[in-house]
Design goal:
about 400 residues, alpha/beta, 8-stranded mixed sheet, 8-stranded parallel beta barrel, 13 helices, 16 strands, about 20% strand
């Protein structure tokens, strides 16, 4: 039977938080479909094609649902390209800051579109691509040198960036044989930032567009966020396509697909005190939700508030030996107790794809909530062999 804190959580959720292993990532199919329908509407209204960026969300058990709406996947290397080809189908796009010779041999088995980071990489692999058994449309990632984000760690246009070719380093000779341009400059941003970035892109690289077949607007578009200006996005894309009607336009958000669709369910293992109560959880910030420390940010908890907002405040810490494995401070209406389940929100994207087994801590199980019955199905659990196989 659920205890008091679980009951408070369930009052805000329509699934049983005790019906899954702990810890577990739990993706809600109904919320995922809601995002996909919005993305499908954007495709229909704008004429652009939207790809699933596997670096953000690669839960392949959901791919039969996702491919009802999106045209394919975009990969960051050989293994993501293979997963997109084998588990999703449709178009497979691939970009890497640099490909190795052996990796390129694998990528060319699966990719339909390939974006190089520099003219030198294109020249190095040009003959290899031409000899590939399947046709691959190649492009170049460019740097519009137009920063719109607030966090330098996530800004590909920051001074000294290794990502993308600047206009001063490009020439018509270097573009010979390429069919597309790709820019990726945004991170969790709205369509006004895309509009200003696109203006910078056209100002610097517009002279090359007449001879191309496609342009990829990259990722970072927070299309499924409630305050995202979809009308502006559609207008920006349609206007661009009006100026360049021969170009296919792609967007490749990873986060927008799974934004606000999943949870991380975990359990309180112990409560200690050091200048206030600290709840030790069976999960970890550094191993299971690394963006909490890298971004950094403070995830929300169902039934939890800001420190001091509710009657009982705790710091929440993970199982690893890292002293800074702290998620943050939260307050609750009732005291926490050992065995309570806590539910972190928005834990579908950039979580499963970034987990580690540091300290030998096991990976969270992966679960899905049925759209209609609201029953939880456990898709995957992890154990000792998953840890052992990563080592030798």
């Amino acid at each position: 039977m659920a205890n008091t804190h679980d009951a408070a959580s369930n009052a805000e959720l329509d699934f049983d938080v005790r019906a899954c292993p702990s810890p577990a990532y739990v993706v809600d199919d109904a919320l995922l479909r809601r995002n996909l329908e919005r993305l499908g509407d954007v495709q229909a209204a704008s004429g652009a094609k939207i790809l699933l960026a596997l670096k953000g969300f690669a839960m392949w058990d959901t791919f039969p649902l996702v491919r009802q709406y999106l045209v394919g996947t975009t990969a960051s290397g050989q293994d993501e390209a293979r997963l997109g080809f084998e588990a999703f189908g449709g178009e497979v796009h691939c970009f890497s800051p640099a490909f190795g010779d052996e990796e390129m041999g694998v990528v060319l088995r699966y990719a339909d579109h390939l974006s190089f980071n520099s003219p030198s990489q294109w020249q190095h692999f040009r003959e290899t691509v031409a000899a590939a058994p399947r046709r691959v449309s190649c492009g170049l990632r460019v740097n519009p040198e137009h920063s719109t984000g607030d966090v330098p760690l996530y800004d590909p246009c920051a001074p000294g960036s290794r990502l993308g070719t600047r206009a001063r380093e490009l020439s018509p000779e270097a573009m010979e044989g390429l069919e597309g341009l790709h820019f990726h400059t945004l991170c969790e941003q709205n369509s006004d930032d895309l509009e200003s970035t696109l203006a910078a892109f056209e100002a610097k690289f517009g002279g090359y567009l007449a001879d191309l077949a496609w342009v990829n607007f990259g990722g970072g578009h927070h299309i499924t966020r409630d305050d995202y200006d979809i009308e502006r996005l559609v207008r920006v894309i349609r206007n661009f396509r009006g100026r360049h009607p021969h170009l296919e336009v792609y967007l490749e958000p990873g986060e927008a697909i799974a934004l606000n669709t999943g949870y991380l369910v975990c359990t309180v293992l112990d409560i200690v005190d050091n200048d206030g109560p600290i709840a030790i959880l069976d999960t970890s910030a550094t191993a299971h939700m690394p963006d909490v420390l890298e971004m950094p940010y403070r995830p929300e908890i169902i039934g939890g508030g800001e420190p001091g907002e509710k009657a009982h405040t705790y710091r929440l810490g993970g199982q690893t030996c890292l002293a800074g494995d702290i998620v943050g401070a939260y307050s609750f209406d009732a005291p926490l107790a050992i065995g309570d389940r806590l539910v972190f929100t928005d834990m579908a994207h950039y979580t499963m794809v970034k987990t580690t087994t540091f300290n030998g801590i096991r990976l969270p199980s992966i679960c899905r909530i049925d759209e209609t019955s609201r029953a939880i199905r456990t898709v995957k659990t992890f154990g000792y062999e998953d840890y052992r196989q990563r080592l030798s």
